[in-house]
């Protein structure tokens, strides 16, 4: 049955069933919302948690019409050890695998869990897709590029300004990781190996696959605020760390001077790219796609300064006297941390295959995200910090 929707080549798109593993996480929650709101597709949502998609599962909740809840089914299971996984993959036309440990604070402190989660646990998913002739969209990471070639040049080398030495290209750039005792690279290395395995399944066994390399997607529902909806000692990714500091009126911690550079893309822009991949298999299969916003580059220090300005605007609270503080990576993350110096995605392939371009500026995406953070957490943080200490 056609849905009235057409793909980029004008062909009708038939409704499909999508097995989405890790659907209860940050990216999964936005992808579920988009699929339910704009397409006729059905979702088999697999995760160990569902807090971030609860509003979609309740028949009348979160503004959802009952037809939304009819098209999403939540399966609480851990893909490490659940025999129901193969059945769900068989029932679906397409599997999207998002499940992973993906917070840098874990890579050097829980390297075994990180490697198991990103490589070993993903193996059965690839195998079931390959054996049952099912299409797979697998989430990898921009971290597979590791460090740029440019960072090994002398500090004053003019070649450091040459894009050939830092722009990251799917089909040309090498993957450059630090030594083994820098366990930070356990995640990137596990993701690289699963990419190679998927690629080989495509080459040798005809698996239909697409690999996504997200470049710092950020927005509402990313990670958790420590002590409010996550462990008080937990260290989430930078957006949630800095949001937590702003909510608590603490200085934002700059790791090793905040000199590393990142490009941030708004989650809603990035999800548009994933929907194009889902609905245009002929253009997306056998490709690896960078998905990021090369125009939104900042150092982490600049990000901290911009988030402080934006938060002042959306909360109406004046900034604290010393808005940032320097910490060493050893103090913040522990032994074995290392960092990617710079991440600029080359957009040629995604542009050519899917015509996708990011739209939202860093200021605008921070404004909508920090408005959400303030609305969602400010009261809870105030309550938590005003509680008298137990005697
Ligand atoms: N957010 C980003 O910018 C970004 C960047 C690069 C790569 N990625 C990749 O995208 C994917 C999703 O990222 P996210 O930001 O949504 O992370 P997330 O942590 O919010 O979501 C991951 C989800 O997977 C689930 N999960 C993990 N292990 C599982 C298991 N064994 N069984 C069932 N469910 C399990 C978790 O409960 C969580 O809900 C990950 O593979 C990550 O490596 C994300
Ligand atoms: O998002 C991505 O594209 C990928 O990169 C992230 O890695 P990274 O960008 O290093 O992680 P963040 O926690 O977002 O940190 C960004 C930078 O901010 C710094 N930072 C972080 C937190 C903080 O409080 N202060 C601070 O200076 C980190 O040292 C790092 O240089 C994670 O590995 C994954 O989510 C993902 O695969």
TrEMBL record:
Keywords, A to Z? Cell wall biogenesis/degradation, Cytoplasm, Lyase, NAD
Please give the SUPFAM superfamilies that the UniProt record associates with this protein: NAD(P)-binding Rossmann-fold domains (SSF51735)
Name of one Pfam family that matches: Epimerase
- One GO cellular component term noted in the UniProt record for this chain: cytoplasm
Domain NAD-dependent epimerase/dehydratase as annotated: residue spans = 18-292
Q: Which family does it belong to?
A: Belongs to the NAD(P)-dependent epimerase/dehydratase family.
Q: What is the protein named?
A: UDP-glucuronate decarboxylase
The scientific name of the source species is: Penstemon smallii
């Amino acid at each position: 049955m056609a849905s009235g929707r057409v793909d980029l080549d004008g062909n009708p798109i038939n409704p499909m069933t999508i097995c989405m593993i890790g659907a209860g996480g940050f990216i999964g929650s936005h992808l579920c919302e988009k699929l339910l709101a704009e397409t006729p597709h059905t979702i088999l949502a697999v995760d160990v948690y569902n807090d971030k998609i609860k509003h979609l599962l309740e028949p009348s909740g979160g503004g959802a019409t009952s037809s939304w809840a009819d098209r999403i089914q939540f399966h609480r299971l851990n893909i490490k050890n659940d025999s129901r996984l193969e059945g769900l993959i068989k029932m679906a036309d397409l599997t999207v695998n998002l499940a992973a440990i993906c917070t840098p604070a874990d890579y050097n402190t829980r390297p075994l869990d990180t490697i198991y989660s990103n490589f070993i646990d993903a193996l059965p998913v690839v195998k079931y897709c390959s054996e049952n002739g099912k299409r797979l969209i697998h989430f990898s990471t921009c971290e597979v590029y590791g460090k740029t070639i440019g960072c090994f040049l002398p500090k004053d080398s003019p070649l450091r300004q040459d894009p050939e030495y830092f722009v990251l290209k799917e089909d040309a750039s090498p993957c450059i990781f630090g030594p083994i005792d820098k366990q930070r690279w356990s995640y990137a290395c596990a993701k690289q190996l699963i990419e190679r395995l998927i690629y080989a399944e495509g080459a040798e066994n005809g698996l239909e696959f697409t690999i996504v390399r997200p470049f710092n997607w950020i927005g509402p529902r990313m990670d958790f605020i420590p002590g409010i909806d996550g462990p008080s000692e937990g260290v989430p990714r930078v957006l949630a760390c800095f949001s937590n500091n702003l909510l608590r009126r603490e200085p934002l911690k700059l790791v090793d001077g905040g000199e590393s550079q990142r490009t941030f893309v708004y989650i809603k822009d990035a999800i548009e790219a994933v929907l194009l991949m889902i609905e245009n298999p002929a253009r997306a299969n056998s490709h690896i796609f960078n998905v990021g916003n090369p125009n939104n580059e900042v150092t982490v220090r600049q990000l901290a300064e911009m988030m402080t300005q934006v938060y002042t605007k959306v909360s109406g609270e004046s900034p604290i006297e010393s808005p940032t503080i320097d910490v060493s990576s050893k103090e913040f993350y522990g032994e074995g941390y290392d960092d990617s110096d710079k991440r600029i995605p080359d957009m040629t392939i995604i542009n050519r295959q899917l015509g996708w371009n990011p739209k939202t500026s860093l200021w605008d995406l921070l404004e909508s995200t920090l408005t959400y953070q303030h609305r969602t957490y400010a009261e809870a943080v105030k309550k938590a910090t005003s509680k008298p200490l137990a005697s």
